[in-house]
Amino acid sequence: MKLDKSNFSEWYDTVLRESGLYDYGRYPVKGMGVWMPFGFKLRRLVLDNIVRRILDETGHEEVLFPVLIPKTLLEKETEHIRGFEGEVYWVTKGGHEELDIPLALRPTSETAISYMESFWISSYKQLPMKLYQIVPVYRYETKATRPLIRLREVSTFKEAHTAHESFEDADKQCKEAIEIYKRIYDELGIPYMINMRPSWDRFAGALYTVAFDTVMPDGRVLQIGTVHHLGQNFTIPFEVRFQRKDEEVDYAWQTSYGISDRIIAALIAVHGDDRGLVLPPKVAPIQVVVIPIPQKDEELDKKVREVAKEITEGLKEKGWRVVLDDRDDKTPGHKYYEWELKGVPFRIEIGKRELEGELTVARRDIRKRTKVKREELDQKLKEMSEEFFNNIKEKAWEFMRSRIVQTDDLEEAKELVEKRMVVEVPWCGRKECGLRMDEEVGRVLGMPLDKDAKVKGKRCITCGREAKVIVRLAKTY
RNA sequence: GGGGCCGUCGUCUAGCUUGGUAGGAUGCCAGCCUGGGGCGCUGGUGGUCCCGGGUUCAAAUCCCGGCGGCCCCA
């Protein structure tokens, strides 16, 4: 099997399946795939070790809402339903009977949650209320679907929903959400831009939307997280009212923020190489593989296997996720390729040489071997895990930075977007010009929040008026 | 939303133009042989030729419809 990451589309599809992560394109429903055992483990480690841990640490509580939402609820907030109506799956029958009220497979849960919050919230003392759930959501995508990137069944949707006493509190919550997402993506070594989406590209029903975007190996931008200030847009129609300390009754202020399967898509895409996956040790389902090198001499061979087993058990006791590959119908070289495809960070080779001297540990990211004393193995692996992670993280950030460029010229901007670069250009801030850029140059990602976006003395690239801010443009998924 | 390409054992693919026995590689299984980067040999396994309909004595091949995948443009 040959892998070539420069042909990203093919690389991505092949790696997903061949590494045993996700089987896509064979299940007979468009836009729906199957998490295989190895992929499920990775997904669970990312969710449990990173996403859930950080949300729990920051005072969020996990809940679980039904997948079905009655039409009447979904339609309560008019702007919201307008944004989604074209892509909702409807359950209209139960057995042979037509349902009185059609039930939607949730495309997102703002309406369901607001409905219940109207019962739960009555006093400022209950606020803020910070809930989240990790559930599948359904969207009848009309564009081409792609595994983990554009699905009709988004199998993993982490959606947080918070309610607050005031606009300012909700605003502060959005800032917290941004910090949380920084932590999550930093822990995975996934680089990101933070962009304030333009008014015409907000979440349906939001006052503003902030997005996390990353750059995929082919230069296209992938949105990997969003944060919305919902104002009172849902609490008014759903009558989520509470009494303030000053005894006035007000509608609560909400935010919502989500991360989907794309977190895994990005993880795979930004770190992988021509041999397959490269997984950060923290989330790798298998962190270490031990491979005994068979020996002609029977006595020696037995000894090698014994030591391999001891090393494996020793690491297990120390808490490492480790596998002993003692299959004897495969040659060591064959095994190397297999485990490299699966992104196992460390490989310990144990043969004749290791019986006398030090152990051989191979690192997946740089594909180099080092010698490690047996008694120092646990400690060294810890150190190497850190170096490993820092290395792949830095490489990923370097790549993303190299794809972001600036220009003040419309034609040049077009060319750069055509070359799959993210282009930063001065903008007057008027919607008219923004839409024109959207149409003629590239998708408007919005105003950068990860750097100073104010500009002075520059002209808008479309109309020539004085520019107010920088906006980012790119090809997107 | 518009345009294009494609669908054949698990995977990659030949065959389709000109209708007539579905062939290879890889994988998988068994045995032998090997073993520090995909070893080799022998044998075996595996195909509703995406689905439905039509034309025909005969369809993987031609025609129509559908489903699914990929690419480009908006």
Automatic annotation (TrEMBL):
Broad class of the protein's primary localization: cytoplasm
Enzyme class: ligase
Key word Protein biosynthesis present: yes
Quaternary structure note: Homodimer.
Cellular localization per UniProt: Cytoplasm
InterPro entries linked to this entry: aa-tRNA-synt_IIb (IPR002314), aa-tRNA-synth_II (IPR006195), aa-tRNA-synth_II/BPL/LPL (IPR045864), Anticodon-bd (IPR004154), Anticodon-bd_dom_sf (IPR036621), Pro-tRNA-ligase_IIa (IPR002316), Pro-tRNA-ligase_IIa_arc-type (IPR004499), Pro-tRNA_ligase_II_C (IPR016061)
This protein's encoding gene: proS
GO terms of biological process kind: prolyl-tRNA aminoacylation
Entry similarity comment: Belongs to the class-II aminoacyl-tRNA synthetase family. ProS type 3 subfamily.
Protein name per the record: Proline--tRNA ligase
UniProt KW keywords: Aminoacyl-tRNA synthetase, ATP-binding, Cytoplasm, Ligase, Nucleotide-binding, Protein biosynthesis
Domain Aminoacyl-transfer RNA synthetases class-II family profile, residue spans: 47-280
GO molecular function terms attached to this record: ATP binding; proline-tRNA ligase activity
UniProt organism field: Ignicoccus pacificus DSM 13166
Free-text note on domains in this protein's UniProt record: Consists of three domains: the N-terminal catalytic domain, the anticodon-binding domain and the C-terminal extension.
Coiled coil: none
Catalytic activity: tRNA(Pro) + L-proline + ATP = L-prolyl-tRNA(Pro) + AMP + diphosphate
EC number: 6.1.1.15
GO cellular component: aminoacyl-tRNA synthetase multienzyme complex; cytoplasm
Iron-sulfur listed as a keyword: no
